[in-house]
Design brief:
heterodimer, B: alpha+beta, 3-stranded antiparallel beta sheet, 7 helices, 5 strands, 42% helix, elongated
Chain lengths: 363, 154
């Protein structure tokens, strides 16, 4: 089904549309090469003619016009930049799909979830009686999306003279910012969906009994992986021990193998038959913790997700329509700002939250 | 506080819908508490855990308002600073919820609910209490559903 609707993301104007420009245009290639500091000499157009220098001249000219406030030049530059960032960004966001599916939709499509369910189980019944039988049916619902924005102050003056160093920082900024925000959004959605569910596999506190019970419950769905912020999975080291004789002191002994792993990787690679995987998580330097003494991380660093593999994951992520941009002058501050937006959505299949386990590592 | 006996055992209660556990500090081994259940452990263990500012006892905001585990012993709570003689530790319970429902002013009610229920467990308890205590104020229940993101079932 295709639903046509107007893009209504926070008043974002899609100003990246430019006729005749596509992701394979030589000017996009040139821009990308300039940003990465690569040679532009071998960039050719469709006829095999070397056009690198010509494209550089054009980019400089566009920046000159943009500096003067020409919106069409700005939109053309935004379009080129979006073509450079978009594939890298979507590639990064795709990595979030490690614990679920990922799909990139077009603007004219609705984000819709289809969950296959089974009716009652087949039952035996006396002859001539009604025989209840099982069948599969699909439940459909739409998933609301959010728009993530990353922006920066542009400096066309620098690029006007061919200095692309600022561009490089800016593109890196959009990419990292968006990726971080997208992962924070996805993880938050999953955590709250699991915590709110009536039937859930969630515990608080990394103790032997808790971890064992979560793994035991998730295990029948498939081999289990424990995924979480590195600072959360490190806490599993404490229970990667065995008791020798006295059952009351289970934290006493640790094997040489486990110790070597901790020494090298900071955490054990497997525990109670489940793989352990730590994900990197950056600080959000704009936000301090409740005490105000240190910074919060972008993704909540307290949770370990218990993900069974080899099962249709209930988690699904979407992006819709790729990057859109908007440029405007902040008159009061005298700054020229460009904003990039990305529409994302995440969902845990309703009624299947129990498939993903959650360990809250609060102490 | 000469009569404060550290070897005595006291009750602690898991007020969440998750199993909660922690590792002992003063002793060896671990403590595991099933959802909404009280268990008996030594007072010295509770005191060392609370005094080391454990988030499970103090809550995320570190002010004792939204804890995972509630210490069911007044003497220990006062001794460790979780509450004072005059001001008891404020945690969500059915009495507080019915007090909030008693408020006539809608914005005062909203404020009270937002202060009472912050964590998932507290929201869950709030939603369950609404049907358990038989409240029938459409607007207030609608607000609770909106605020918690959960549906009140009968």
């Amino acid at each position: 089904m295709r639903t046509y609707e107007i893009n209504e993301m926070n008043g974002c104007r899609k100003d990246t549309v430019h006729n005749g420009l596509n992701s394979k245009s030589p000017i996009v290639e040139t821009f990308s090469a300039l940003v990465q500091g690569k040679d532009v000499e071998n960039i050719k157009d469709v006829n095999g003619k070397k056009v690198g220098d010509q494209c550089v001249k054009k980019i400089k000219e566009l920046n000159t016009r943009a500096e003067g406030g020409d919106t069409s030049a700005i939109s053309e530059l935004n379009a080129i930049r979006a073509y450079v960032v978009n594939p890298i960004l979507l590639e990064e966001i795709k990595l979030l799909g490690f614990f679920g599916g990922y799909e990139n939709l077009g603007y004219d499509e609705t984000i819709e979830r289809k969950v296959i369910k089974q009716s009652i189980n087949t039952r035996g019944q006396a002859l001539n009686g009604d025989v209840p039988f099982s069948f599969n049916y699909a439940d459909k619902y739409t998933v609301p999306s959010t728009s993530l924005a990353a922006g920066y102050e542009v400096d066309y003056r620098k690029a006007q003279f061919g200095d692309m160093s600022a561009e490089n920082i800016l593109i890196e900024n959009i990419k990292t910012d968006m990726r971080n925000k997208a992962s924070a959004f996805a993880f938050d959605t999953v955590t709250s969906a699991i915590s709110n569910a009536t039937i859930k596999n969630a515990v608080t506190g990394v103790t032997r009994a808790n971890v064992q019970s979560v793994i035991n419950k998730a295990r029948p769905f498939g081999a289990v992986t424990l995924v979480g912020d590195t600072s959360a999975v490190i806490k599993l080291n404490d229970i990667a021990t065995y008791s020798d004789l006295q059952k009351t002191t289970p934290y006493l002994n640790i094997s040489q193998d486990a110790m070597n792993e901790i020494r090298k990787n900071a955490y054990v690679s497997s525990i109670m038959g489940a793989g352990v995987y730590g994900i990197d998580n950056a600080y959000d330097l704009s936000k301090t913790n409740t005490a105000g003494s240190w910074f919060d991380k972008i993704v909540n660093d307290e949770y370990i997700f218990v993900v069974p593999t080899g099962v249709a994951s209930p988690i699904q992520l979407w992006t819709r329509g790729g990057l859109t941009s908007m440029t405007a002058t902040d008159v009061s501050a005298g700054r020229l700002l460009t904003r990039y937006d990305l529409e994302v959505a995440a969902d845990v299949a309703k009624g299947e939250e129990y498939k993903i386990g959650l360990i809250d590592t609060t102490e | 506080m000469d009569s404060f006996d550290m070897s005595k055992s006291i009750m602690i209660k898991n007020v969440t819908s998750f199993p909660v556990g922690f590792r002992k500090i003063s002793g060896e081994g671990e403590v595991n508490i099933p959802p909404y259940t009280s268990i008996l452990i030594s007072r010295s263990e509770v005191v060392s855990k609370v005094q080391s500012r454990s988030t499970l006892f103090w809550g995320k905001t570190q002010d004792g308002k939204h804890p995972w585990i509630y210490v069911d012993d007044k003497e220990t709570r006062i001794y460790t600073g979780l509450e004072t003689e005059t001001e008891p530790q404020s945690i969500i319970d059915e009495k507080k919820i019915s007090d909030a429902f008693g408020l006539k002013n809608m914005s005062a009610f909203k404020k009270a609910i937002e202060e009472l229920a912050v964590t998932f467990a507290e929201k869950k308890m709030l939603v369950e209490a609404v049907s358990k205590l038989n409240f029938n104020d459409y607007k207030k229940i609608k607000f609770i559903e909106e605020y918690t993101g959960m549906t009140v079932e009968n």
